[in-house]
Amino acid sequence: MPHILVPEDPMFMKRFLAMEEPLFHSLYYLHLTHLPEDQAETIRRAYDSWGDIQRAMPTHLSWHTPTAFETAAARRGSKGYRLSGPDGEQLISLYPIEVSVQSLSNLTECLRLLERAELELSGPLAGALHEIRDPGQDQELVDNYRRVLKALTLTAPPALVAALLSAAPEVTLNGPLHDDYQAFRDRFRLAVSEGDTFMLAMHQALYL
Fold it and tell me: Read out DSSP for 134-185?
């Protein structure tokens, strides 16, 4: 199975969790029986795949975070490992996790289904999405899903993955590995927060 890289990034974690609650949880338990069987099966597979990815992630990561910056400040006490740059500065730790191509394919298929439902503005799935959506939230559910999946499907630099597979208790990135880290960090940030100037600035600040 290929490896993907997941940063110890609370802004990403918050979006990742939002795929389960309210989106997948509500679709699965409240609306699935009202959907055509092919749509229901697509959502079932995607929900299972989301769970597989969550279970593959390091257990010490703080998934329930009151604010992004509170968690970012606390990362210095992480039970993971310390990642440093060439000048000794602490970097956001990255964790290689194995994810099956099928899991990512299932999530992609479900995203396309939800995107079509949003465009149609009618039918049981479109109605379910409208019912689940919380007007008080500043994140659209399908757009959030799209951003998370884009981040999860970023190509991870092989040399960086290899250097981090046995990362403990401290890893220092020099030369090309540090360049790979910076390039991946920037692509990851854009995948999660691009299009929202304020959120992108906040996200960038987490990595300083």
Answer: -TT-SS-HHHHHHHHHHHHTSPPPHHHHHHHTT--SEEE--HHHHHHHHHHH
Tens digit of each residue's pLDDT (9 = 90 or more) over 75-110? 334 467 899 999 999 999 999 999 999 999 999 999
Starting at the edge strand found earlier in the chain, the sheet holding 90-91 runs: 90-91, 82-84, 170-172
Pairing of β 170-172 and β 94-98: unpaired
Handedness of CA 188, 194, 198, 201 (dihedral sign): positive
CA distance 179 to 86: 10
| Distance in angstroms (rounded) separating the CA atoms of residues 184 and 163 | 14
How crowded is the C-beta side of 51, counted as CA atoms within 13 Å?
8
Q: Under a CB-based contact definition with an 8 Å cutoff, are residues 104 and 153 in contact?
A: yes
Omega before residue 10 within 30° of 0, cis: no
pTM over 0.85: yes
